[in-house]
Design brief:
Length: 163
């Protein structure tokens, strides 16, 4: 059984640990170091942040969103990140986190969730496809990561509820 609860400051150490594990894997982000909790907390929307917990309270993963733009036309569009502890992958935490995020964003009138994923991150691509995301484009050689140019697939999920 996996519990999904709102992310709070008490989860900070686990969230940043899992974030860094994802970064260390090399296929999660252009970033190479997790931010401080203050920077993380300031940049993510508080209403749409969740953690997955084992029954014993062990943090298995997290999901959070940022605003895409402050412009009113983009008020219903967010970009998300989802990270699962490598030791917990394949147990349903990512799926449960995305379900919670989708429910939360739709309840708030958000019509599009988007993300950028490296093409090599096959597990993330499969997770997102199962949650209703589709690939809408490729940003070719958009940035350098560890000295190599990397492509990023742009994924989005349009809400069938918020129209």
């Amino acid at each position: 059984m996996i519990d999904i609860v709102p992310m709070t400051a008490e989860h900070a150490d686990g969230v940043l640990r899992i974030y860094q594990q994802g970064l260390d894997g090399g296929h999660a982000s252009f970033e190479t170091a997790a931010p401080t909790w203050a920077a993380f907390d300031e940049s993510r929307l508080p209403a749409h942040r969740f953690v997955a917990l084992d029954p014993d309270g062990t943090l298995l993963g997290w999901v959070a969103v940022t605003r895409v733009s402050p412009r009113p036309a983009y008020a219903g569009v967010v970009e998300h990140s989802v990270y699962v502890d490598p030791a917990a992958q394949g147990r349903g935490a990512g799926r449960a986190l995305l379900r919670a995020l989708i429910a939360s964003t739709e309840a708030a009138g958000i019509w599009t969730i988007q993300s950028g994923v490296f093409p090599e991150n096959e597990a993330s691509l499969a997770l997102h496809a199962a949650a209703g995301f589709r690939t809408i484009g490729v940003r070719e050689r958009v940035g350098r990561h560890h000295g190599a140019w990397r492509d990023v697939l742009l994924l989005e999920r349009r809400s069938p509820v918020v129209v």
